[in-house]
Each structure stands twice: as structure tokens, then as C-alpha cells.
Amino acid sequence: MNRFNKPSGPDSEDFSVQRMVVGPIGTNVYILINKKTQEALIVDPGDEAQRIIARLDADKVKPVAILLTHGHFDHIEAVDEVRTHYGIPAYCLDREVALMEDSRANGSRGWDKGLSVTPDRTFKAEEEATLAGLRFRVLHTPGHTAGSCCYYFPDQKLLISGDTLFCGSYGRTDLETGNDAQIVRSVQRLLRELPEDTVVCPGHMNTTWIAFERRYNPLSEG
């Protein structure tokens, strides 16, 4: 593959990733589907719970877990309704729990929401796990928040990057627990360690891929 030709994407006969854009900030919700079992993972259900539920039911898939990249309100607002509806657990990195539960820190108080979400289970940094028959690694990528993480699915050559890495950009650091130096290290780590044909699904805006970001991202080491 020419490293600057965009990969065809992670979809295959065994796997599919679907995107929904929800809420006032245009947050990407991802539905990762194991086509062999029709089980699914829901990533960052940030708003519009009933719309997410309707999509899952229309696709006739069985959600087994919610994965959260970080605790800002626009990524967690629909968690309680969705997990209660399906009776499934929500996961995040262990060091992000405090922010997720704090309505001031997670930004929801500023939107008159007063949101507090407690995950059912947590991951350790660099933990490897398998859910819905999909194998992934939890990459601790602080900077946007102290407990931000990305989910890397090596078999699908897929990275769910939350608000750490965007197409030609990166997450803001001026919110609670954000850190300029950490976001630089986190983005550079992703660009250095992941294969160039890895598709990147960010928390906002369009998909990208590692080879493109190595060349064009402002934080790239070149």
C-alpha cells in the first residue's frame, strides 16, 4: 500500500464499525460489531440514548459492553440510559473515574446538566482484553484529560482515539486535568508505535490513518 493512500477501512466479512454523530458538540459514537456472533461494543455514547438504542435494535446486534475513552460529558451523557436498557457494563481507564463522576470536572455543570457517571468496571493502563470476541489493548494517552485512553484493535488495524488524536489535529488541553506536554507525548507515541495502515476513529470529525498523521499532524516527529 502506498502509505499516503487511505486504507479501505477495518470492515470485513467478520467485523464492522459504524459511526453515529450525536449531541450539541457533534460527538462520534462507534458501534463495533462482531459479525460472527452479532455481538457489539458501544464506544462513547455521548447523547441521544434513544437514537443509539434504535440503531442497535435495527441492526439486530447484541451489545455486551460500553467502552469510554474519557469522562467529558459529551462522551458519557447517554451511558446510564443505554447500559440500563441492555443490562451491560461500562468501562473506562481506572484513573479517569474521578473526573467522570465530578459534574464540574467533566464539564456538564457548565451546560446545566450536573452529570455524574460511575463506570461498572475499569481497565489498567496497557491492559489487554477481549469483549464481544474482539481483542484490544487499552492505551493510556493522557493530555486531553489525565485518564484519557485509546482502544487499539490489532486484528482490525483500528484505533479508537477519543479526543487524543484527530484528523490533522489533536485534543485540547485547557480543560480539567489537560496537559500540553502529555498530549504531545501521547500523540507521538501513537504515531510512532502503531502500524501506518491503522485506521483512526476519533471522538469528533472524520476518520484518518496513522501514515497520514505521521506526515501531516502538527505534533508529528516527522
What is the CA-atom radius of gyration, in angstroms?
Answer: 16 Å
Mean pLDDT: 96
Output the CATH class name: Alpha Beta
Q: List unreliable stretches of 5+ residues.
A: none
Strand content: 25-35%
End-to-end Cα distance: 20 Å
CATH architecture: 4-Layer Sandwich
CATH fourth-tier homologous superfamily = Ribonuclease Z/Hydroxyacylglutathione hydrolase-like
Give the structural class: alpha/beta
How would you describe this protein?
The protein is an alpha/beta fold and 222 residues long. It has a single domain, classed as Metallo-beta-lactamase, Chain A (4-Layer Sandwich). The chain has six helices and 14 strands. The protein has helices at residues 49-59, 73-76, 79-86, 97-101, 180-193, 210-216, and strands spanning 15-22, 27-34, 39-43, 62-67, 90-93, 121-123, 128-131, 134-140, 149-153, 158-162, 165-166, 169-170, 199-202, 208-209. It has a six-stranded mixed beta sheet, with helices on one face. It has a six-stranded mixed beta sheet with strand order 7-8-9-10-13-14. It has a two-stranded antiparallel ribbon with strand order 11-12. Strand 2 (27-34) and strand 3 form a beta hairpin.
Write a concise keyword list for the protein shown above.
14 strands, single chain, six-stranded mixed beta sheet, alpha/beta, 222 residues, Metallo-beta-lactamase, Chain A, globular, 29% strand
Annotate the secondary structure layout:
Layout: E1 15-22, E2 27-34, E3 39-43, H1 49-59, E4 62-67, H2 73-76, H3 79-86, E5 90-93, H4 97-101, E6 121-123, E7 128-131, E8 134-140, E9 149-153, E10 158-162, E11 165-166, E12 169-170, H5 180-193, E13 199-202, E14 208-209, H6 210-216
Parallel strand pairs: 3-4, 4-5, 5-6, 10-13
Antiparallel strand pairs: 1-2, 2-3, 7-8, 8-9, 9-10, 11-12, 13-14
